[in-house]
Amino acid sequence: MTSVIIVIGAGLIGQAIAVRASPPGAVCGPGPGAGDHARRRAARPADAAGRSAQVSKRANVLRVQAEAVRWGERGARVNAISPGIVITPLARDELNGANGAGYRRMIELAPAGRAGTPDEIGTVGELLMTERGAFITGSDVLIDRRRHRVVLLRLDLRPGPDPEGLTVTPENSTALIVGATGSIGRHAVSEALRQGYDVRALVRDRNGAERLLPDGVEFVVGDLARPDTLDAAVDDVDAIVFTHGSSTRESDVRDIDYAGVANVLAALAGRPVRIALMTAVGTTRPGVPYAAWKRRGERLVRASGNDYTIVRPGWFDYNDADQRRIVMRQGDTAQSGGPADGVIARDEIARVLVDSLSSDPANRKTLELAAERGAEQDDLAAVFAALRPDEPGALDGVLDTNTVPVDDEPARFRDDLSRIAGGSQ
User: Fold this and answer.
1) Residue 146: what are its φ and ψ, rounded to 5°?
2) Per-10-residue mean pLDDT for the chain, 425 residues long?
3) What is the 8-class DSSP label of residue 322?
4) Is residue 125 classed as helix, strand or coil in its secondary structure?
5) Sign of the CA dihedral running 402, 403, 409, 414
6) Alpha helices of 10-117 — where are they, by DSSP H?
7) Please, are residues 240 and 257 in contact by the beta-carbon 8 Å criterion?
8) SS3 for 285?
């Protein structure tokens, strides 16, 4: 059994004791941290205590490098983790204290532009201290949440859900928009471009799509109903936004809406991406055949092993001009089949879908989307954060009640579920 030593604190003496310890295993200790780099950029005069802390942390990194060879001879590894400012009780005290302005300045100058969370640091620690990180030693991992974090988490081939999973950032990320020429898809393309994504559009008619969509979009010709045409669409994408839709005829929803989700997920062949799936409010209504196929598409996304946000919008563009305040609910309890279930503008639906790709609080959540009277929020993080995540391993939304046993589902769905869930392992 592998022994693991976790060093809490940045003390030079404390880490020296740990790296000189005899049991083989994995040692993980703190390095300088992105916050220390930001502190230097902020050019804030450092007092003696601050200066000694920086020197101590830098010395820890050098000690880790020097000790890696000796630990390797004993079949063990040693690494350092260097986070930026992490929201802990101590950090909150600093932010609200006399040095609050300096702390906020450090956060602004950090590459991520925000503070981290203990869970985010723990995710990297888990990677370094388990067999999945068996080839990593003598390293200092600087966690700044941009492309570094995405790459690290892609190394984590986890078998099950992880609420702090793959988060996509727009810079150097490719987002595939499925249904790109539709009434929501066109807005999603524009929003993804605005946020800085490289946008790829899956289209059946390139010439028609070029007339509808803005410059800067990469077009891939394919058909959701033909799996053999989808490999190029999903090649090397970081995120997928499903906005496609057909009608309320059961055969259309089964063969286009549902089949599109199933075929794209199968084309991924288990490769992780971040997913935003648009279905509809009332998806769980019993006795509505077309809604049942939308719900089955949701179930495939949850079972795929990918990180996701499932958005069930209300009635498109039935909102008044002053109804722009975005509201998110759960449980799919509004099931009148009319605008009373909620109304929302098309551009706001697209904004929520694209926002969810880079939002940790949106991960693995299922929500109904509507708008109330008031101004649209600049930041939706708090709205996403108020929602409950879906249960790990569950096929249904966390508060959904009208659920169906898998054995009672059609054979087509059961076959797709087995194929897609199996490919995610």
Assistant:
1) -85, -130
2) 53 51 54 51 46 64 76 77 74 67 63 71 77 81 48 33 57 93 98 96 96 96 97 96 96 97 96 97 94 98 97 96 97 92 97 97 97 96 97 96 95 96 64
3) T
4) helix
5) positive
6) 12-19, 34-41, 48-73, 89-96, 100-109
7) no
8) coil
Region of 347 please: left (phi>0), alpha (psi -120 to 50) or beta: alpha
Q: What is the pLDDT of residue 63?
A: 75
Closest among 52, 112, 53 to 85, alpha carbons compared: 112
Q: Which residue's structure tokens are 């199996």?
A: 422
Q: What is the DSSP letter of 20?
A: T
What is the residue whose two structure tokens read 């799919």?
332
Concatenating the DSSP letter of every residue in 151-207 gives HHHHT---SS--TT-----STT-EEEEETTTSTTHHHHHHHHHHHT-EEEEEES-HH
Beta-ladder partners of 220: 202
Taking each helix axis from N to C terminus, what angle separates 185-195 and 346-357, rounded to the nearest 10 degrees?
A: 50
Contact 366, 312 (CB under 8 A): yes
Measured distance CA(59)–CA(12) in Å, rounded:
7
Element holding 208 (H helix, E strand): helix 206-212
CA-CA-CA-CA dihedral for 372, 378, 379, 384, to nearest 10: 10
Tell me the residue type at 127.
L
From 308, 319, 320, select the one nearest 167 (Cα to Cα).
Answer: 308
Q: What is the pLDDT of residue 37?
A: 46
Place of tokens 């295993």: 25
Q: From CA 385, how far away is CA 27, in angstroms rounded?
A: 33
Residue 392 is predicted with a pLDDT of 94
Which domains are assigned to the chain?
A: 3-154 (3.40.50.720), 174-423 (3.40.50.720)
pTM of the full structure? 0.64
In angstroms, rounded to a whole number, what is the distance separating the alpha carbons of residues 392 and 46? Answer: 45
Cα–Cα dist 261/277, whole Å: 9
Of 176, 269, 278, nearest in space to 220 by CA:
176
Q: State the maximum Cα–Cα separation within the chain, in Å, rounded to a whole number.
A: 72
Contacts by residues 125-132 (CB-CB < 8 Å, ≥ 24 positions apart): 125/6, 125/28, 125/81, 126/156, 127/152, 127/155, 127/156, 128/26, 128/28, 128/77, 128/79, 128/81, 129/4, 129/6, 129/26, 129/28, 130/26, 132/156, 132/157
